[in-house]
Amino acid sequence: MNLSVSNSPFDQEQAAQLNQIFQTLTAEQQIWLTGYLTAQQGSVTQTAEAPQQVAEYVLNNESESQTNNDRHITVVYGSETGNAQSLAEIFADRLVEHNYTVKLTAMDEIKQKEFKKVEDLFVITATHGEGDPPDNALTFHEFIHSRKAPKLENVRFSVLALGDESYEYFCQTGKDFDAKLLELG
Questions:
Q1: Closest CA to 177 of 151, 128, 136, 140
Q2: Helix extents (H) in the chain
Q3: Which of 68, 73, 74, 180 is an S-S bond match for 120, by CB 3.0 to 4.6 Å?
Q4: How many CB atoms lie within 10 A of CB 37?
Q5: CA 83, 161, 180, 70 torsion: positive or negative?
Q6: Are 119 and 72 in contact (CB under 8 A)?
Q7: pLDDT value at position 123?
Q8: Average pLDDT per run of 10 along the chain, which is 185 residues long?
């Protein structure tokens, strides 16, 4: 990544400093920084382009040496208002464009037998009410927190939680999914 003064809101000195920092960051650090800066915007209204920008950033900053097209990716979403679903659809479409085998499903549609066969899992979920899962995520949330949940050895996963930081239990559903998936394998 090389920030150019001509196409950014930074002056030449700021661009040079940012370029120096960006050269030392891993892809994971860049993604974290993007999320951090986005969260710092606070009450700035998100545009309809935001989910696509996140998906494009993640995919465009993926290491080209990683070619795991033989692994199947499952994208599940829990959505109350449609934001998480929209992001999941955009993300799945972008993965398909990059020649990945992708299964996109709402959390209330994933079957327990299918879940046991997951290889790579992307969980995109909203948080509803006081840290609760959205309606279409309740069954899945209960399942993975139950004794029936399978061990998920060799499963790579990522959780993207959407929420409103003004709530006490900000993104709690995503935090719950992340902790439980980590515990399962």
A1: 140
A2: 12-22, 27-40, 50-60, 83-97, 112-115, 138-144, 172-184
A3: 73
A4: 9
A5: positive
A6: yes
A7: 92
A8: 60 82 78 66 47 55 51 89 89 88 92 84 87 88 88 87 82 88 86
